[in-house]
Automatic annotation (TrEMBL):
<dbReference type="GO" id="GO:0005184">
    <property type="term" value="F:neuropeptide hormone activity"/>
</dbReference>
<feature type="signal peptide">
    <location>
        <begin position="1"/>
        <end position="21"/>
    </location>
</feature>
<dbReference type="GO" id="GO:0001664">
    <property type="term" value="F:G protein-coupled receptor binding"/>
</dbReference>
<dbReference type="InterPro" id="IPR029034">
    <property type="entry name" value="Cystine-knot_cytokine"/>
</dbReference>
<protein>
    <submittedName>
        <fullName>Bursicon beta</fullName>
    </submittedName>
</protein>
<keyword id="KW-0732">Signal</keyword>
<dbReference type="InterPro" id="IPR034441">
    <property type="entry name" value="Bursicon_suB"/>
</dbReference>
<dbReference type="GO" id="GO:0007186">
    <property type="term" value="P:G protein-coupled receptor signaling pathway"/>
</dbReference>
<dbReference type="GO" id="GO:0031395">
    <property type="term" value="C:bursicon neuropeptide hormone complex"/>
</dbReference>
Amino acid sequence: MASTYCQLILVIISLVYMARGQISGDESCETLPSEIHLIKEEYDEIGRLQRTCNGEVAVNKCEGACNSQVQPSVITPTGFLKECYCCRESFLRERMVTLTHCYDPDGMRLTSEDMNSMNIKLREPSDCKCFKCGDFSR
């Protein structure tokens, strides 16, 4: 009888925790503008460095907080149900960026039209939201 009473108490506590988690809407996962310094090296067919290009690139990033919780559970072996949520990209977009500061292996700035810049493809978040941590199936 005491065991059943304890399980009932845990169920009630679980319901209170779940209700508290659903009421608080303090998630703030956002897609924010950012800037990164990007460096790309280019090698010839036998592995010798041909040029290094770099530049400041404006990109989006995911940032913010998501509701996570630990609640008592009579079902799990540990006695607690853990639900962790993380802010990350829900969709990536691909775009081309141009790096305009290019140098030869000796550090000399390249000025010829075919070598003074480098186009590279990158993927950045176009939308962010909260996902269950460790869930990479999307």
